[in-house]
Amino acid sequence: MAALEIHNVRKEFGNERVLKDVSISIDSGEFLILVGPSGCGKSTLMNAIAGLEPVTSGNIYIDGEDVTWRTPAERDIAMVFQSYALYPSMTVRQNISFGLEMRKVPKAERVAAVERVADLLQIFPLLERKPAQLSGGQRQRVAMGRALAREPKVYLFDEPLSNLDAKLRVDMRTEIKKLHQRLGTTIVYVTHDQVEAMTLADCIAVMRDGHILQLGSPDEVYNNPVDMFVAGFMGSPSMNFIRATLEAAGDGYALRIATPDEDNVLLPWPSERNAAGLVEQLNKPIILGLRPEHFSEEDVRLSEQAEGTLMEAKVSVVEPTGADILLRLPLGEQEITARVGPKCAIAPGERLSLRVDMARAVLFDAETEKRLA
Amino acid sequence: MSESTTRTAVRPTASGWLQAWLPRLVLAPSIAVSLFFVYGFMLWTFVLSLTSSRMLPSYDFVGFGQYSRLMANERWWVASTNLMLFGTLFIVICLVIGVLLAMLLDQKIRQEGALRTIYLYPMALSFIVTGVVWKWLLNPQLGIQAMVQGWGFESFRFDWIVDSDMAIYTLVIAAVWQASGFVMALFLAGLRGVDDSIVKAAQLDGASLPRIYWRVVMPCLRPVVFSAVMILAHIAIKSFDLVVALTGGGPGYATDLPATFMYTHAFNRAQIGLGSASAMLMLGGVLAILIPYLYSELRSRKHG
Ligand SMILES: Nc1ncnc2c1ncn2[C@@H]1O[C@H](COP(=O)(O)OP(=O)(O)O)[C@@H](O)[C@H]1O
Ligand SMILES: [Mg+2]
To answer: Is A133 part of the contact surface with chain B (CB cutoff 8 Å)?
Structure first.
């Protein structure tokens, strides 16, 4: 049975439609990530799940029960806020046990719960402090502690790490992942950071303008995006969108990328990936999507076995990141990014042979931006 | 900049000198005036309180004789007890009403701006106007009592203003009417400053609305309560115009406050020495409230 089910939820603020027919269903113990640009309605959806904002229409079920019109307290949900929202006048201990106290949990159990949470998050030394005396990372921990003190059916995290510095964010990300693996709780987690989304999620919902564009596993969303928005949003550096023309080649297809000064680049489309809709796009402009890692530098020693198509281009910028090198190469009307190994010795201005992994390439309709193949 | 040029230049230029001294020259008269009229007169009052001055100031020193006369004066004690009673009730009721109004206005209601202005409006009136209006309202022959009796409730009585035991409460009513809107504005600003998500967190924690206010929001407003008490205490001690306009200190001297006591004795009853002594005690009262306030303000400012 679904731990959380959102059914055709709409939310309007006056005339502004913020959520448009959102439907999501996740199983118990799943980690769902809502990701999308800022202002797309992620927090609004969270508030709707929590019961902090009434929905305009639609239903929300928790553990199979319709909770659409229940108060936040009756829904048995805990939430971690972006601003942490710790009670400033209470100590960390009181902050953590407040929810239990309000639910009339006996004192002894409250004390035990605080101990358990403090142990889990290693915040024992902070228990008697006030929030103002804590650092950002410590506040974040306490905010999580407050959510973990109760054992609600669903946890909501609204951009919990976005106020932390980069290093702490990576550490906390790992800790949240461990915590989830250990406790097996159902979590809905909002972020606009696609790395966080990829690393934490069992299931990702990509949102835009109040719509859910795609709901699927991180692998699906990353490798099988439904449209150009999802493809461009997930992954960093983002996917290259290359304008090309679809042509017939033998009994299959090929993509021609027009380059003004020299011969056009022709990339054959792998025949096993032919899709029904492609025939209508013949000789029309089309968008070829290739992620930076779908390019690799041609290695003479391996060229016999290596798969993929060769392509030549001039390098304009070389950006070593340490683990690998990002190359910027003008190709036709656009500039593409390719990710190559750290040993690749190349200087700006030189020409380079790149191997393109067309088996993982994706095609989009140039007008609707929807996925074709 | 100007200081360093005047110091390093061998012969300071006229314009450099002017630049350095102009601000001081411009400020000097007002500083001198306020030193003289505020602190000078404070000092003079203190000196007078040590003399036997009656109609006109004299310098025939009697030590703290006027103070002991004051302590023995029945009317001074009435005024002091009145101030205690009036001040306490005024502050407490203003706070309670102000907080309640602020909470109600904070519920995202329509026309909030208009309501806020209506509640705040009495503060724009002078205490004299408030006093006169309430004098009419409370007058048994003209005001509320006459109106309700006119509706047929013949036995209805509301004549506190002419009852020497109850008249002090009419001062409280009028003063609360005037100041509670202001307290509401203070609290409303405070409530708006409280992070929204704290309230949301408390809702999810299962707290009811009254509990959210009492346990979570109000503790955040402690500085506002403090400021409000300071301002109200200050208004209470200085209440003079309201008493003059509403009851004139009467019936008898039942609604005298230290300020009216001081005025009556210094200027109407030719007891300048005694009046000065009472003025000094009032100053002491104000300072006793103000100094801890300023101290805590300055300290909190230093700590950021
Ligand atoms: N209380 C509100 N009243 C009116 N509009 C709102 C309110 N809350 C959010 N919105 C609007 O809803 C949209 C989505 O907001 P939000 O859910 O906070 O976005 P996100 O969390 O994805 O950044 C925004 O355009 C915002 O202006
Ligand atoms: Mg948000």
So the answer is: no
Domains, chain A, with CATH or none = 2-227 (3.40.50.300), 240-365 (2.40.50.140)
Average pLDDT by stretches of 10, chain B with 304 residues: 47 79 86 87 86 78 81 85 91 93 83 83 83 84 82 80 81 89 90 88 90 88 86 85 81 83 83 86 85 79 56
Place A106 in a pLDDT band, splitting at 50, 70 and 90. very high
> Taking the domains of chain B in order of start, what are their residue ranges?
2-37, 73-303
The complex scores an ipTM of: 0.82
Q: Is A72 on the interface with B (CB under 8 A)?
A: yes
A324-339 confidence digits (pLDDT tens)? 999 999 888 889 999 9
Considering only CB atoms, which chain B residues are within 8 Å of A79? 200-201, 204
Q: A87, A148, A162: best mutation site toward chain B, by most B Cβ within 10 Å? A: A87
pLDDT at A299 over 80: no
Write down the CATH superfamily of domain B73-303.
MetI-like (1.10.3720.10)
Are B220 and A88 within 8 A, CB to CB?
yes
Residue B127 in 3-state DSSP? helix
Pick from A46, A47, A43, A49: nearest CA to A62 = A49
How many interchain CB pairs under 8 A, A with B? Answer: 61
Can you tell me whether residue A108 is helix, strand or coil?
A: helix
What length does chain B have?
304
Asked if A89 has any chain B CB less than 8 Å from its own CB, the reply is: yes
Does ligand 1 come within 6 angstroms of the Cβ of A206? no
Taking contacts as CB-CB distances below 8 angstroms, the residues of chain B near A67 are none
